[in-house]
Structure formats: structure tokens, C-alpha cells
Write a structure and sequence with these properties.
Belongs to the AHA1 family. This protein has 165 residues and is of the alpha+beta class. Helix content is 28%, strand content 38%.
Amino acid sequence: MAGTGQDTRAEGATADREIVISRVVDAPPKLVFEAFTELRHLSQWWGPEGFTTTTRSFEFRTGGVWDFVMHGPDGTDYPEWISWTEIVPPERIVLLHGESHDDPNTFESTLTFAPHGAATRIVMRTVFPTQQLRDQAVKAYHAIEGGEQTLNSLASYVTQRRAGR
């Protein structure tokens, strides 16, 4: 298990294949959930520091797909594909994430949005098909740092939006 924050321990049979990252965002769950589910918001903050996205298609519904390219700060393009498998507004999203719909290394992420006082605790639990793929994501692609940066970008975006900037 790899992760950050409190209450993010991996549990059960998948613990050796998981990355768990959490963050408290200073906004109510409904607003944080909206930032995750509407393209006009998502395209403003998604990805680690220095990354941008270009969306090819986006349909937020169970079975829908977000097909996009992440542009790295070094100019490298990364094809990305997400399909939502469960949506429970404003509490939970489960998705599959890979380079394309037929990527054998596709992983599953479960995002939960829980009230934390007036804020939201978001937990992103990612389960890889194998421990080797999880370890590769951590070492070669800096998945933990990237996930933390992505949630930091979300927090910054939502905070600015609440402030009307």
C-alpha cells in the first residue's frame, strides 16, 4: 500500500496492489463532486503540476467515456481513457482508467466525497491489476506524487471558484 493522509490504509486482498491518496478540500461535497463531473471544470484542474488536457470526447454517465490527451510539461503527450462504472452523486465515483478501452493495464479507481465539517474529504483508492503494475506506476510514473498534485490542483481550483475568481 502506498498513500497519504489519514484513514487511507489499504485493506483486504488488494492492499499490495493499491495506491490510496486523500485530501481535504475546503468546499462542500456537492461542489467538489461537480468539479469532478463537469468537463468545463475538469479540464481546468485535472492532472499533476504542469500538465494540461485536450478532450476528444466526454460523456459523464455510467458506461460513458472521457477520451483525452494529457500534455506533459516536457511536451510529451499521454493518451488517456476513463470509463465510469458507478456514479452516486455527490458521494462516490468508480472508474476504469487506461490509455485506451483495450489497454490490458487498465486500473480501477474509487473516489469518495465525504463531508468533513464544512469541507470535503476526498479519498482516491486505485487498484492495479497486479502488484508489479502498481510498483511500476509508483516508481516510473510517480503515481503518488502525481495523484497528490492532482488533488492539490482540484483543491486550488475549487477554492478559487468559491472565492469567485
